[in-house]
C-alpha cells in the first residue's frame, strides 16, 4: 500500500470517508486539521481569529510535508485549502495516492451550514465563491470520486479504484494504483532508469546499483547498450541476478534487450512509467534498439519475469506523452469488438480517471493477439501493426522524436482507414467514426504536414525498409469496420505515398 491523502472542499466528507477507508485497509488514519489543533493547543477557528489564515496555511503546509515524509503508510484527510499551495500540492502528488472527493458545492454547504467550527463558510455566496477560487487546484488531483452518495458507496468506489488486477499469461503483470511505492521494499540487483523518472521519483525507489539512460528515443541504440553491459560487469551481475527497468518504452526495450543478451540471459522485470509502455511496449516480449536505418532493427523476443504497473506515473507526463500512449489505445479500440472504441466515444472527458480504465483492457487485447504467436510466426501478431506502416515511416522521415510514436501510429491508422475506405473495404460511416474519435482524443495532422513536401521516392525508400515488406509490396493492416481489421497482402508500396498525402491533405 502507500500513503493516501484525501482532499476536497468543505462538507465533502473527507474525515468520515478517511476513517472508514483506513479501517478497511488496516492502516492508521490522521486528520490534518486535528493534528494542527493538537500542536497549536487551540481550535482552527481560534487560529484564524488570533493569527490569521496565512499563519494557519504555513502550519498546515509544514505538518503536511512532515506526514508525507513519515516511513509508514496511512490515510490522511486534509482541509479544503491544503491543496491550494503549489508546494503542498506537489508533495501530495509526488508522495501519496491523491484522492479528491468532489460534488455539487451546494450539497456540501447544506451538510455543514449549521456548524460553527468552520471559519470560511458563511454566507452561502462566500462559500460558493471560495469553491470557485479553489476549483483549479482540485482539478489537478487525478483520482476523483463523487461524494454526494452515501459514505459507504464512496469508500467502496475508492477500494475498487485501488484494487490490484493481475494477468498471469504469457507474462505476469500486476496493475495497481500506488503500487510503485512498494518497490522500495523489493531488492533488485541492478536498475536501468530513465533520467526524467530518476529526477522526479528516485527517492521513491531503493536504488543501489543503477544506470541512468538519457530521456528519449535517441538513447535507444547499441552504444547505450554497450555502456550498460560495462556497468553490469562493474556491478558483478551474474546469472542469478535480476535487473529492473524503470521508465517508458525506451527503457523496457533496452532492459529487455540487455537482460536477454547479457551473460546469454538474466532475469529482468519492468516498471513501465509512460502510458505508451503501460498499454503496449512493455508487453509481448519484443525488445530492441534502433539503427540509423530504422527502428527496432536489432532485438530479441524474451519475456520479463514480472511487470509492475502503477497508473499514477501518468500524472507526471507531459500532454504529448499521454497522447502517445492514447495512440496505442486508439489502435486497440479498432482491432476487435472489445468495447474500448465505444467507451472512448462515450467518455465525457479524456482525463486520468478515464485513461487508467483503459490500461487493463488494452493489455488484454494485446495478449489476445500474441499469446499463440509469441515469436511472430503464425501471421496473427502482425495485426498489432495497425497504423505502424505509415507510422514508422513518419517517425523516420520527420526524425525520431519530432512526433511521438503514438501520434505517428494514430495518424497511420487514419491512413490505413483511408486506404480501406477508398478500396471499398470500409464504409464511409465507419471511416468517419474512426476519424472523429482520432480528433476527440486530441490528435491532429498538423505535425505531419512536412510529409507533403517530401518527394515520393524518399517515402517509398523508407517504406521499403519496413519489416513487413515483401519485394515491392507490403503487408498492411487496415480496418474493415470501426472495430475489426484485415490484412492486405502484398499491397504495392509505390501507391502508398499518394494515399498518405491525400490523407494528410484532405482528411486530417
Give a structural overview.
- This protein is α/β, with parallel strands linked by helices and 508 residues long.
- The chain folds into three domains: 4-162, P-loop containing nucleotide triphosphate hydrolases (Rossmann fold, 3-Layer(aba) Sandwich); 165-316, 3-Layer(aba) Sandwich (Rossmann fold), CATH 3.40.50.1970; 359-506, Dehydroquinate synthase-like - alpha domain (Dehydroquinate synthase-like, alpha domain, Up-down Bundle), CATH 1.20.1090.10.
- It has helices at 14-25, 32-40, 44-51, 53-68, 86-95, 105-112, 124-139, 151-162, 195-201, 222-234, 249-261, 275-281, 319-335, 340-346, 352-356, 359-370, 388-398, 405-422, 428-441, 456-463, 496-506, and strands at residues 4-8, 29-31, 75-77, 97-102, 143-146, 165-167, 172-175, 190-194, 210-213, 242-247, 267-272, 286-291, 294-301, 306-309, 469-470, 473-481, 484-492.
- A five-stranded parallel sheet has the order 2-3-1-4-5, with helices on both faces. The protein has a four-stranded parallel sheet with strand order 9-8-10-11.
- Strand 15 and strand 16 form a beta hairpin.
- Helix 3 (44-51) crosses helix 4 (53-68) and helix 4 runs parallel beside helix 5.
- The longest helix is centred in the last third of the chain and has 18 residues, at 405-422.
Amino acid at each position: 500500500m502507500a500513503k493516501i491523502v484525501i482532499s476536497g472542499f468543505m462538507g465533502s466528507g473527507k474525515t468520515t470517508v478517511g476513517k472508514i477507508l483506513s479501517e478497511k485497509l488496516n492502516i492508521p488514519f490522521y486528520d490534518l486539521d486535528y493534528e494542527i489543533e493538537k500542536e497549536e493547543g487551540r481550535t482552527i477557528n481560534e487560529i484564524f481569529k488570533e493569527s490569521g489564515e496565512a499563519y494557519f496555511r504555513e502550519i498546515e503546509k509544514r505538518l503536511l510535508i512532515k506526514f508525507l515524509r513519515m516511513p509508514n503508510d496511512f490515510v490522511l484527510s486534509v482541509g479544503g485549502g491544503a491543496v491550494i499551495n503549489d508546494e503542498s500540492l506537489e508533495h501530495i502528488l509526488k508522495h501519496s495516492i491523491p484522492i479528491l472527493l468532489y460534488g455539487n458545492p451546494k450539497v456540501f454547504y447544506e451538510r455543514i451550514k449549521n456548524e460553527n467550527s468552520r471559519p470560511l463558510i458563511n454566507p452561502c455566496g462566500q462559500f460558493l465563491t471560495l469553491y470557485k477560487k479553489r476549483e483549479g487546484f482540485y482539478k489537478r488531483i487525478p483520482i476523483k470520486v463523487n461524494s454526494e452518495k452515501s459514505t459507504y458507496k464512496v469508500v467502496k468506489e475508492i477500494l475498487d479504484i485501488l484494487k490490484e488486477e493481475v494477468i498471469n499469461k504469457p507474462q505476469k503483470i500486476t496493475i495497481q494504483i500506488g503500487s510503485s511505492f512498494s518497490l522500495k521494499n523489493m531488492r533488485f540487483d541492478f536498475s536501468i532508469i530513465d533520467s526524467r523518472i530518476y529526477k522526479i521519483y528516485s527517492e521513491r525507489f531503493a536504488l543501489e546499483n543503477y544506470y541512468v539512460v538519457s530521456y528519449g528515443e535517441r538513447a535507444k541504440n547499441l552504444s547505450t547498450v554497450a555502456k550498460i553491459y560495462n556497468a553490469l560487469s562493474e556491478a558483478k551481475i551474474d546469472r542469478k541476478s535480476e535487473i529492473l527497468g524503470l521508465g517508458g518504452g525506451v527503457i523496457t526495450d533496452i532492459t529487455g534487450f540487455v537482460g536477454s543478451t547479457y551473460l546469454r540471459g538474466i532475469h529482468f522485470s519492468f516498471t513501465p512509467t509512460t502510458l505508451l509502455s503501460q498499454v503496449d511496449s512493455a508487453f509481448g516480449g519484443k525488445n530492441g534498439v534502433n539503427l540509423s536505418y530504422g527502428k527496432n532493427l536489432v532485438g530479441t523476443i524474451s519475456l520479463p519475469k514480472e511487470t509492475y504497473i502503477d497508473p499514477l506515473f501518468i500524472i507526471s507526463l507531459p500532454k504529448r506523452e499521454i497522447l502517445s500512449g492514447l495512440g496505442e489505445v486508439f489502435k486497440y479500440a479498432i482491432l476487435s469488438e472489445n468495447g474500448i472504441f465505444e467507451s472512448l466515444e462515450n467518455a465525457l472527458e479524456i482525463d486520468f480517471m478515464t485513461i487508467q480504465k483503459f490500461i487493463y483492457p488494452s493489455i488484454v487485447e494485446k495478449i489476445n493477439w500474441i499469446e499463440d504467436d509469441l515469436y511472430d510466426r503464425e501471421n496473427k501478431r502482425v495485426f498489432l501493426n495497425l497504423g505502424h506502416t505509415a507510422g514508422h515511416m513518419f517517425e523516420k522521415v520527420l526524425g525520431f522524436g519530432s512526433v511521438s510514436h503514438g501520434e505517428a501510429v494514430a495518424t497511420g491508422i487514419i491512413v490505413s482507414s483511408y486506404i480501406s475506405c477508398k478500396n471499398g473495404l470500409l464504409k464511409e460511416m465507419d471511416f468517419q467514426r474512426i476519424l472523429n474519435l482520432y480528433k476527440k482524443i486530441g490528435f491532429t495532422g498538423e505535425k505531419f504536414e512536412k510529409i507533403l513536401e517530401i518527394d515520393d521516392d524518399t517515402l517509398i525508400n523508407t517504406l521499403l525498409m519496413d519489416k513487413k515488406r515483401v519485394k515491392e509490396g507490403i503487408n498492411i493492416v487496415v480496418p474493415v469496420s470501426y472495430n475489426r481489421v484485415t490484412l492486405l497482402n502484398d499491397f504495392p508500396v509505390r501507391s502508398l505515398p499518394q494515399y498518405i498525402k491525400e490523407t494528410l491533405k484532405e482528411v486530417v
